[in-house]
Amino acid sequence: MRTEKQADTERVSPVIRRMRGDNESARERVLAEIEALGLNENLRELEVQGFTVVEGALAENQIERAKAAILRRVESNKGAKIDPETATAEDFNGMNYLHYLIFDDPVFPEIPLEPKPLALITYLLGESCVLSSMGCHFRGPGGMPLGVHADGISVGMNEVSQVANCNYALTPYSQDAGALVLFPGSHRRNRQPSAHENWTVGGDTMVDVLAKGLKPGEVDALDWTAPRGAVTMNLNPGDAAIWHGNSWHGGWRRDLPGVRMNLAAYFCRPHLSTQERRGDTRYPEVFERYADEPRFARLLGERVFNGWRDEGPDFTGVKDSPSGLFD
Fold this sequence. Notes:
Elements: H1 4-9, H2 14-20, H3 22-36, H4 40-49, E1 51-54, H5 60-78, E2 95-98, H6 107-110, H7 115-125, E3 130-139, E4 146-149, E5 163-169, E6 180-182, E7 200-201, E8 204-205, H8 206-211, H9 216-220, E9 231-232, E10 240-244, E11 249-251, E12 262-268, H10 284-289, H11 294-299
Antiparallel strand pairs: 1-10, 2-3, 3-12, 4-11, 5-10, 5-12, 6-9, 6-11, 7-8
Helix pairs in contact: 3-7
């Protein structure tokens, strides 16, 4: 099986790749990698359920370093210390998304390269996929649940995953701890959930609740009902949930003291705009550190074909221009 490094040395014009059908070769490589990593059952779950869990995807050292870096960001933003074990709603209420973590700490560039989750993301999005964003849904007690949604765009959804998510649990996931929920088979619906297929309080939808303009304490006291079909993902730190871009997902409100931390690595096909700007030249030392890992530069958008200026398109093969689903 060709390695990523070997593939980079065999650069061929995108036109030639299409003519010789490189997508089939890529499909064989992707499936061989999944089998070699013992992920065939995970692949079956991805196809049938639209999501799967890779247990123990991160090492203990990675978990602790990621948590420490995330906590530093939160405390810097808030200007106060937060105890991740005992924090109350007064210390940190509800959920806040921490964006653009990839360059915050040396641990973060390591994580998108973890082989098992990356092999499944590659199955969903092809070898040319790009890291769209990396952030943390940092959740303290109270607030609202995360509304159920699909990451895929509503216009033109079909069975092909255009985006995909890898959600690493950094703290234990359970219903009371504010766990992720996923909906088996929802990736085949090719649409977003309606307001009545989402969280409710009595007969009120989330939209109804938001329209009331309740105070934080009033919101914290609400008793939410999960949508029909929701599966709570009870995960251990280091586990990774990977899902198809059309899969419905959301999250419980946290009802325990302390905080829930995750790391959301969100990927897309190279023809889509990334959530975070790629082609970043401000951190040359990071790219130098991964000079022997060609997949890193690829994930960070260094080989995206589109986006030329007056120099025109690059047909040398240095840039990716996939011919199918897998290359």
